[in-house]
Amino acid sequence: MKTHFYLLTFLVTIATIESYAQEEFSLSFLDQSIKLENTLILQLDNLFSEITKGEFSNRKLLINDDPLSLSVFNEIALLELAAADSTMSINREIINYYPVGMNRYVIQVASYVSDHLQKNNLFLIWTFVAHKTKDTYLFSTPLDYYTTQWKTKIISSVTYFYKRDLNLPRAELFAHKNKIFSNKFTQQEVNIKFYMTGD
User: Fold this and answer.
1) At what angle do helices 2-21 and 38-52 cross, to 10 degrees?
2) What is the pLDDT of residues 63-72, one digit of tens each?
3) How many Å apart are CA 164 and CA 162, to the nearest integer?
4) Residue 142 contacts by C-beta under 8 Å, 6 or more apart in sequence?
5) Cα–Cα distance between 81 and 89 in angstroms, integer?
6) Strands of 137-140's sheet, edge to edge?
7) pLDDT tens digits for 8-21?
């Protein structure tokens, strides 16, 4: 009898873990050949649970406690919260997953708003990077991944990140105007990170 009780407890625990791991998102859009590790699935569930709260505050899910990633995940949480109401709910689907180097994976997610008739309307597609650590996964925006080959130039309090060329006279003028602006309002000069893109 005792053995049956332990076996039943074990099976209920496993069933709970399996259902919990799929609670916050769906994998049905992914190719059947792609298999995600259980550790990644649990961490994704933690990430999406945090976003569902409407305020992302769990810094333990972020790589290097990155403030930009915290801000971006908070913004996603606010967008989803604004889209959902008493008649609408949010559904998430992982639509793409691929490795981008040793222990790094890009993940793309589609967020849908569903009404009571289960009609899904796509309202957000977002991308982030999963970093595999010793025993878990941590997350970040893809900015570092997409800009690893970029050059950096610091002029005064402005750090420029650029792919090919930097218009140096224009960059110096911007940094100078930033300094003038700070002096005019007797404020400390703000350190700015400026990503120069072609768009």
Assistant:
1) 60
2) 887 788 888 9
3) 6
4) 106, 127, 128, 129
5) 9
6) 89-99, 104-114, 120-132, 137-140
7) 333 333 333 333 33
pLDDT higher than threshold 70 for residue 5: no
pTM value is 0.69
Give the residue among 67, 86, 80 at the shortest CA–CA distance from 121. 80
| Interatomic CA distance for residues 107 and 98, integer angstroms | 7
Domain 2-142 has CATH 3.10.450: yes
Biggest CA–CA distance in the chain, Å, is: 82
Distances (CA, A) of 151 to 161, 173, 186, 187, 194: 6, 19, 32, 29, 12
**Nearest Cα to 99, choosing from 36, 55, 46?**
36
Specify the pairing of strand 120-132 against strand 137-140: antiparallel
**Residue 49 corresponds to which amino acid?**
S
Stated as kind and residue range, the H or E segment containing 15 is helix 2-21
CA neighbours within 13 Å on the CB side: how many for 156?
18
Tokens of 156: 């005064």
Comparing CA positions, the residue from 95, 102, 90, 92 lying closest to residue 130 is 102
Query: Whole-angstrom Cα distance, residue 69 to residue 60?
Result: 12
Domain boundaries, the chain: 2-142, 151-196
CA distances from 170 to 120, 166, 175 (A): 47, 9, 9
> Sheet harboring 158-162: ordered strands across?
151-155, 158-162, 192-196
